[in-house]
Write a structure and sequence with these properties.
globular; 2 domains; 63% helix; mainly alpha
Length: 365
């Protein structure tokens, strides 16, 4: 690098030696020519500097990033200081549209229930649920976007674990079909358990499959899937696989007797709400376990933070609301739809098939 003979910088300096922005040059030393000893036609000092500059090398160490910029984190879900996944510019709009769709589904369920049943209690219940979804949808219009942003951040943080839960359920479904092909019919086993009186509430002549029954019944595996993190995820994984086995086995058995259309009509109306709710609960449980593992191995500074609690609680409550909507649909729409579309098939198949429609709740403990 340029400097005097003693290693110091030239007193006069040169604007090519160093740049405030972070670049500099190095090359052959430049030394002034003694005019007294220079003969005629000798090069001047300026000429010497110019020729030396022609062979000099410029090094640019300037940072392309703006000053003070922070490097991006490798894991958007890593939350050591309260930060979390960025919901993105369209998150509020997308979740608002989803809330609108759920509100419409809730009000449609209320209208159908009012038309088919005399009891106004379930009508008021599902209509109130529609109001909750509608309020969630219009909250951005009122300047409140925190909740929808929290839901979006919750989905971004848990989506890998939700998908893992879906994979476990799908695996269980395949196993259930294979068991049926091997001669194991869980539908017959369920009928035997009913005959032995293991479910006395079902033997009551006044017993009815109401929304309250399905909410209580389905909330148990929902909560257990979350708490299953305490079992290192084994309970959560078992619930997903077990549910898949029973649904796959019973659906294949009933479908073989009545037809695939019966399976679709018996599962789709409420299953589009109930199954995602259970997958959300399992995803929350698996994510809790993963964060705990990160904390144990030192890759996370804090196991639980306030932002994480907020977005996880919002996400879990949203999943439970889906479960509640599924309960109303399963209690008041699915049976009417099956009776309307498959009355003749049900009468021909006998009481056994009629007593066990292929709904996903039949797999729940």
């Amino acid at each position: 690098m340029n400097g005097g003979r003693d290693g110091t910088r030239d007193a006069e300096g040169d604007d090519r030696d160093s740049d405030p922005a972070g670049d500099f040059e190095f090359g052959p030393e430049r030394e002034p020519i003694d005019d007294s000893s220079a003969g005629p036609g000798a090069a001047t000092d300026a000429d010497t500097v110019r020729r030396s500059g022609e062979t000099r090398i410029k090094v640019d160490l300037r940072d392309d990033d703006p000053e003070g910029s922070e490097p991006p984190t490798s894991d958007p879900g890593f939350d050591p200081s309260g930060s979390g996944p960025d919901p993105g510019p369209d998150a509020v709009r997308n979740w608002s549209l989803l809330a609108v769709a759920l509100a419409v589904a809730s009000f449609a369920t209320a209208a159908f229930t009012f038309a088919a049943h005399d009891d106004l209690v379930p009508v008021a219940g599902v209509a109130g649920l529609g109001v909750v979804f509608a309020a969630l949808a219009v909250s951005p219009r009122l300047g409140h976007t925190t909740l929808l942003e929290g839901l979006s951040a919750g989905w971004l943080e848990h989506r890998r674990y939700v998908r893992f839960s879906v994979a476990l359920f799908a695996f269980g479904t395949v196993v259930g079909v294979v068991l049926l092909l091997a001669g194991v019919n869980l539908l017959e086993l369920i009928a035997e358990l009913l005959e032995e009186g293991l479910f006395p509430e079902l033997e009551d002549e006044e017993f009815q499959l109401t929304a309250s029954f399905f909410i209580r019944n389905n909330s148990q595996p929902f909560l257990l899937s979350i708490v299953g993190a305490l079992s290192l995820g084994l309970l959560t994984a078992f619930l997903m696989v077990f549910n898949g086995i029973v649904v796959g086995n019973v659906a294949a058995a009933v479908g073989g007797e009545i037809g695939a259309g019966y399976i679709v009509a018996g599962l789709a109306p409420h299953g589009i709400f109930e199954l995602p709710a259970l997958f959300i609960a399992a995803g929350v449980g698996f994510r809790l376990l993963y964060r705990f593992g990160e904390r144990v191995f030192g890759s996370r500074d804090a196991f639980v933070t306030k932002p994480y609690l907020y977005r996880t609680l919002a996400f879990a409550v949203f999943g439970w609301l889906l479960l509640v909507l599924a309960a109303f649909v399963e209690a008041y729409i699915t049976p009417e739809l099956l009776e309307l579309l498959f009355a003749d098939q049900l009468a021909g198949a006998g009481a056994g098939a009629e007593a066990a429609p292929p709904d996903s709740s039949s797999s729940l403990p």
